[in-house]
Amino acid sequence: ILEWLAVGRVDVGLAYNPAPAAAFDIRVVLEEPLCLIGPRADRRLPSRLRLADLPRFPLILPSQPNALRRLVEARLAGLGLRPQVAMEIDAVPAILELVAEGHGYALLPLRALQGAAAAPRLAATAVAQPALKSALAIVTSAQRPSTPLQQAAMRMIEELAGPAPGAG
After folding, report:
1. How far is CA 88 from the centre of its chain?
2. What is the rounded CA–CA span in Å between residue 34 and residue 126?
3. 61 forms bridges with which residues in the sheet?
4. What is the Cα Rg of the chain in Å?
5. Considering only CA atoms, which of 88, 94, 113 is closest in space to residue 37?
6. What is the pTM assigned to this prediction?
7. Alpha carbon separation from 55 to 51, 61, 131 (Å, rounded)
Protein backbone atom coordinates (compact mmCIF):
# COMPACT_ATOMS: atom_id res chain seq x y z
CA ILE A 1 0.00 0.00 0.00
CA LEU A 2 2.82 2.40 0.83
CA GLU A 3 4.45 1.63 -2.51
CA TRP A 4 1.16 2.34 -4.30
CA LEU A 5 0.87 5.65 -2.45
CA ALA A 6 4.45 6.57 -3.38
CA VAL A 7 3.86 6.01 -7.10
CA GLY A 8 0.40 7.61 -7.15
CA ARG A 9 -1.54 4.40 -7.81
CA VAL A 10 -3.81 5.15 -4.80
CA ASP A 11 -4.57 8.37 -2.92
CA VAL A 12 -5.37 6.97 0.54
CA GLY A 13 -4.19 3.84 2.28
CA LEU A 14 -4.76 2.11 5.60
CA ALA A 15 -1.64 0.62 7.13
CA TYR A 16 -0.75 -0.95 10.45
CA ASN A 17 2.23 0.54 12.26
CA PRO A 18 3.65 2.53 9.33
CA ALA A 19 7.16 3.85 9.87
CA PRO A 20 7.44 7.64 9.72
CA ALA A 21 8.70 8.82 6.34
CA ALA A 22 8.97 12.25 4.71
CA ALA A 23 7.02 11.00 1.68
CA PHE A 24 3.88 10.24 3.71
CA ASP A 25 1.39 11.95 5.98
CA ILE A 26 0.35 9.48 8.67
CA ARG A 27 -2.73 9.90 10.86
CA VAL A 28 -3.34 7.20 13.50
CA VAL A 29 -7.06 6.40 13.72
CA LEU A 30 -7.04 3.37 16.01
CA GLU A 31 -4.64 2.03 18.63
CA GLU A 32 -5.16 -1.40 20.13
CA PRO A 33 -3.20 -2.91 23.01
CA LEU A 34 -1.75 -6.29 22.14
CA CYS A 35 -2.45 -9.25 24.38
CA LEU A 36 -0.73 -12.55 24.94
CA ILE A 37 -3.40 -15.14 24.16
CA GLY A 38 -3.15 -18.66 25.46
CA PRO A 39 -5.32 -21.65 26.30
CA ARG A 40 -7.82 -20.81 29.08
CA ALA A 41 -6.60 -23.72 31.21
CA ASP A 42 -2.90 -22.81 30.86
CA ARG A 43 -1.34 -22.02 34.23
CA ARG A 44 1.69 -20.33 32.55
CA LEU A 45 -0.47 -17.46 31.27
CA PRO A 46 0.20 -14.66 33.76
CA SER A 47 -2.37 -12.15 34.97
CA ARG A 48 0.18 -9.38 34.19
CA LEU A 49 2.90 -9.49 31.54
CA ARG A 50 5.91 -7.27 31.02
CA LEU A 51 7.15 -6.79 27.46
CA ALA A 52 10.56 -8.14 28.50
CA ASP A 53 8.89 -11.44 29.52
CA LEU A 54 7.51 -12.17 26.04
CA PRO A 55 10.51 -14.25 24.87
CA ARG A 56 9.60 -16.89 27.51
CA PHE A 57 6.52 -17.81 25.47
CA PRO A 58 6.60 -19.77 22.17
CA LEU A 59 4.66 -17.51 19.83
CA ILE A 60 2.58 -18.31 16.78
CA LEU A 61 3.07 -15.20 14.67
CA PRO A 62 2.32 -14.10 11.13
CA SER A 63 5.27 -14.41 8.76
CA GLN A 64 7.33 -11.40 7.65
CA PRO A 65 6.68 -8.74 6.37
CA ASN A 66 3.48 -8.60 8.48
CA ALA A 67 3.16 -5.26 10.33
CA LEU A 68 2.32 -6.91 13.66
CA ARG A 69 5.33 -9.20 13.39
CA ARG A 70 7.62 -6.25 12.57
CA LEU A 71 6.24 -4.31 15.54
CA VAL A 72 6.85 -7.17 17.98
CA GLU A 73 10.37 -7.82 16.70
CA ALA A 74 11.30 -4.13 16.73
CA ARG A 75 10.01 -3.51 20.26
CA LEU A 76 11.80 -6.59 21.62
CA ALA A 77 14.99 -5.69 19.71
CA GLY A 78 14.90 -2.33 21.49
CA LEU A 79 15.31 -4.33 24.71
CA GLY A 80 18.02 -6.53 23.22
CA LEU A 81 15.58 -9.46 22.96
CA ARG A 82 14.04 -11.63 20.25
CA PRO A 83 10.68 -13.42 20.19
CA GLN A 84 10.58 -17.19 20.45
CA VAL A 85 8.76 -18.05 17.21
CA ALA A 86 7.15 -21.49 17.42
CA MET A 87 5.23 -21.23 14.13
CA GLU A 88 4.46 -18.77 11.37
CA ILE A 89 0.80 -18.72 10.32
CA ASP A 90 -0.81 -15.85 8.41
CA ALA A 91 -4.50 -16.49 9.19
CA VAL A 92 -5.76 -15.25 12.56
CA PRO A 93 -8.46 -17.97 12.93
CA ALA A 94 -5.81 -20.66 12.35
CA ILE A 95 -3.47 -19.00 14.87
CA LEU A 96 -6.23 -18.95 17.49
CA GLU A 97 -7.13 -22.60 16.87
CA LEU A 98 -3.48 -23.66 17.25
CA VAL A 99 -3.23 -21.65 20.48
CA ALA A 100 -6.42 -23.25 21.83
CA GLU A 101 -4.91 -26.67 21.07
CA GLY A 102 -1.82 -25.77 23.13
CA HIS A 103 0.76 -25.33 20.34
CA GLY A 104 1.90 -21.88 21.49
CA TYR A 105 0.69 -18.38 22.24
CA ALA A 106 -0.59 -15.55 20.07
CA LEU A 107 0.11 -11.86 20.31
CA LEU A 108 -2.96 -10.08 18.97
CA PRO A 109 -5.44 -7.34 19.86
CA LEU A 110 -8.27 -8.54 22.12
CA ARG A 111 -10.65 -7.78 19.23
CA ALA A 112 -9.22 -10.84 17.43
CA LEU A 113 -11.18 -13.04 19.84
CA GLN A 114 -14.55 -11.49 18.98
CA GLY A 115 -16.58 -14.05 17.11
CA ALA A 116 -13.68 -16.51 16.87
CA ALA A 117 -14.70 -20.16 17.14
CA ALA A 118 -11.78 -20.83 19.49
CA ALA A 119 -12.54 -17.84 21.79
CA PRO A 120 -14.28 -19.81 24.59
CA ARG A 121 -11.12 -21.92 24.98
CA LEU A 122 -8.76 -18.92 25.19
CA ALA A 123 -7.66 -16.31 27.72
CA ALA A 124 -5.77 -13.06 27.19
CA THR A 125 -3.33 -10.89 29.15
CA ALA A 126 -2.40 -7.38 28.03
CA VAL A 127 1.30 -6.66 27.54
CA ALA A 128 2.36 -3.84 29.87
CA GLN A 129 5.47 -2.15 31.21
CA PRO A 130 5.65 -0.78 28.57
CA ALA A 131 2.37 -1.31 26.77
CA LEU A 132 2.55 -2.88 23.34
CA LYS A 133 0.04 -1.27 20.98
CA SER A 134 -0.71 -1.75 17.33
CA ALA A 135 -1.74 1.36 15.40
CA LEU A 136 -3.96 1.57 12.34
CA ALA A 137 -3.24 4.72 10.34
CA ILE A 138 -4.56 6.56 7.34
CA VAL A 139 -1.59 7.23 5.07
CA THR A 140 -1.52 9.74 2.23
CA SER A 141 1.20 11.14 0.03
CA ALA A 142 2.93 14.22 1.38
CA GLN A 143 3.95 15.05 -2.20
CA ARG A 144 0.50 15.44 -3.76
CA PRO A 145 -2.33 17.81 -2.80
CA SER A 146 -5.38 16.36 -1.11
CA THR A 147 -8.61 16.18 -3.16
CA PRO A 148 -12.17 16.65 -1.84
CA LEU A 149 -12.90 12.96 -2.49
CA GLN A 150 -9.77 11.94 -0.57
CA GLN A 151 -10.76 14.18 2.36
CA ALA A 152 -14.29 12.72 2.41
CA ALA A 153 -12.90 9.17 2.36
CA MET A 154 -10.57 9.99 5.26
CA ARG A 155 -13.45 11.47 7.31
CA MET A 156 -15.52 8.35 6.69
CA ILE A 157 -12.65 6.09 7.79
CA GLU A 158 -12.12 8.14 10.94
CA GLU A 159 -15.84 7.95 11.80
CA LEU A 160 -15.85 4.18 11.34
CA ALA A 161 -12.70 3.76 13.45
CA GLY A 162 -14.18 5.68 16.40
CA PRO A 163 -12.52 8.30 18.59
CA ALA A 164 -8.93 9.16 17.76
CA PRO A 165 -6.24 7.85 20.15
CA GLY A 166 -5.86 10.16 23.11
CA ALA A 167 -9.19 11.89 22.43
CA GLY A 168 -11.67 12.13 25.18
Report:
1. 15
2. 6
3. 88
4. 18
5. 113
6. 0.81
7. 9, 13, 15
